[in-house]
Amino acid sequence: MQEEALRRLQWEENVAFIQQHNLRFDAHLETYTVGMNGFIDLSWKEFQEKYLPKKTKFSRLDVRQHYKKLLNVPGKSQDPLASSTFLEPANMPEGYLLDDVDWRKKDMVTRVKDQVGPKTVTKNT
Description:
Elements: H1 2-26, H2 44-51, H3 60-71
């Protein structure tokens, strides 16, 4: 029963947040609205711990080096994160842009979470 009371309290806090935020939206103080979903009875900390990936300790340099290795980009001048200079596609070295990348094989995405299963879908007629 204690868990149910905790969930109820968290639900009430989140509903109050939603109402306050949407009032701010109505007053043109916010640029988006928020609403209820399946996470309404979780705190932000609980949501982070359960559904978001753990933080990494990558610096911008680490990310640059990772992408150079990942895409086999030779040389600093061709590093897509090194400069904001626009290069016409004709100036790109052969093979710079890959036709496709399976990000799952490169361990760059997490599995899909919290999706509706086929048994929960109903036909509306």
